[in-house]
Amino acid sequence: MTADRRARRRQETLEEILDLAEAVMTEEGVNGLSLAEVARRLGVQPPSLYKYFPSLMSVYDALFLRGQHEHLRVVRDAMGGAEPGLAAIQAGLDAGGRWCLENRALAQLLFWRPVPSFEASPEALEPSVEMIALIRNALTEAVAAGELGPGGDSDEAIQLISILTSGTLTQAMANEPQLPWGKGRFSPLFPKLIALLPAAYPPTAPPTRRRARPKALEPTT
Amino acid sequence: MTADRRARRRQETLEEILDLAEAVMTEEGVNGLSLAEVARRLGVQPPSLYKYFPSLMSVYDALFLRGQHEHLRVVRDAMGGAEPGLAAIQAGLDAGGRWCLENRALAQLLFWRPVPSFEASPEALEPSVEMIALIRNALTEAVAAGELGPGGDSDEAIQLISILTSGTLTQAMANEPQLPWGKGRFSPLFPKLIALLPAAYPPTAPPTRRRARPKALEPTT
DNA sequence: GTCTATATTATGATAGAC
DNA sequence: GTCTATCATAATATAGAC
């Protein structure tokens, strides 16, 4: 059916608009996004964009939503490929950090909120609920395995991790705008920061044996 | 002499322009600063502002410079009123955090760099050199007192502290825009984060006795 | 040091022809 | 779903009168 083709083509255009919007934000700042500039790059006149998005804010919201989903997927996939517990958190947030530095404009939109007039829709905030659940689940496993002690899977522990993550990202994005994750003075410190968690929530008993050999921690990297 | 009065009046106007610019940034985002809006609030026509600042970017630079100096002064004063070592870092960065949440627009300009077209002048970056020296000095004292072990006053340790600080601030500013320092889910965790430093750089010997009674740690707060 | 007037350019958004 | 035309508004910045 041609309706399929048309719908697919429309979806492609929608994504292309968002891609171009990301590029504009990267160059002009998140707050510097303008539909006219996106239209210019897409090779159409500004009014044409209103067939795809009803307003500038709706573009921000679509970007926010797409960013949340991509970020969540990257973190979830990396956690799934790692040993449970702290190693999963390490692997997930490491992959998340890499994604953020590869998608700086989106990361700033998600984690800095630099556009006061933009309020993310409730739907766009849902992925962050799952993100928190993922982290808490891994923390609970870490506590069960004796990697962390009491309070290691509390709200406070999650907030602590979010501070470590956003601090690393903020310093990297603000001070080393062109370096990727893993390079420079800040992001290489992230593993060290996560390794401090047991000091914050010290295990009361010696850790139980891990399910697999420690050597096999990162077999696919 | 009337020249004095005139110079003083001019200085007052300069400061008033910067105050109004801060207010605009707070409401419209750092990137949303506009000279026309500042002129409106000052009750003059936009061209009049060009007698005080040659361009929009020069206003950003003056804001950056003023912010750096204020922030440095606040941190330096708080460190001077505390015991040397980790307690000084704790006190200094705590006061610095409070200042940041009371001056969010400036803090974002200083630490997020959300305006890609704005590059701070070398002069405006000087206070951050002294800030680093202050922290390093306190870290060296902490090492000497046995609070921290080897590496406790390294570049890496300073970067670690900057991550903890900017992470706490970023989470507070993005997620709890109206709460002051010390309230909410994030900034109260800051002392806990600083307390993790000895775990990152463990003392090799038991700490030597502190110079004063621990009770007197925060006598003026 | 203030103003008016102006140049130049930009924006978000809508109406309506094709 | 694209366009032209348009509305309404905004911005930075300069020239020049007072």
Describe this structure as you would to a colleague.
The structure is a homodimer of 221-residue chains. The first copy, chain A, is mostly helical. Chain A has two domains: 1-54, Arc Repressor Mutant, subunit A (Orthogonal Bundle); 57-200, Tetracycline Repressor, domain 2 (Orthogonal Bundle), CATH 1.10.357.10. Helix content of chain A is 64%, strand content 0%. Chain A contains ten helices and no strands. In chain A, α4 crosses α6 (104-111) and α4 (56-80) packs parallel to α7. The radius of gyration of chain A is 20 Å and the shape is elongated.
**Chain pair with largest interface:** A-B, 39 and 39 residues
Q: State the domain count of chain A.
A: 2
Distance between the termini of chain A: 44 Å
CATH architecture of the largest domain in chain A: Orthogonal Bundle
Q: Within the CATH hierarchy, at the fold level, what is the topology of the largest domain in chain A?
A: Tetracycline Repressor, domain 2
The proportion of residues forming helix of chain A, as a percent range, comes to 55-70%
For CATH, the homologous superfamily of the largest domain in chain A is named as: Tetracycline Repressor, domain 2
SSE order of chain A, one letter for each helix or strand: HHHHHHHHHH
* Unreliable spans of chain A: none
- In terms of DSSP E residues, the strand content of chain A is under 5%
Total number of β-strand segments of chain A? 0
**Continuous helix count of chain A:** 10
Overall radius of gyration of chain A: 20 Å
Shape of chain A: elongated
Oligomeric state = homodimer
Structural class estimated from helices and strands of chain A: mainly alpha
Average residue-wise pLDDT of chain A: 93
Instruction: Profile the largest sheet of chain A.
Output: none
Reading off the top of the CATH hierarchy, the class of the largest domain in chain A is best stated as Mainly Alpha
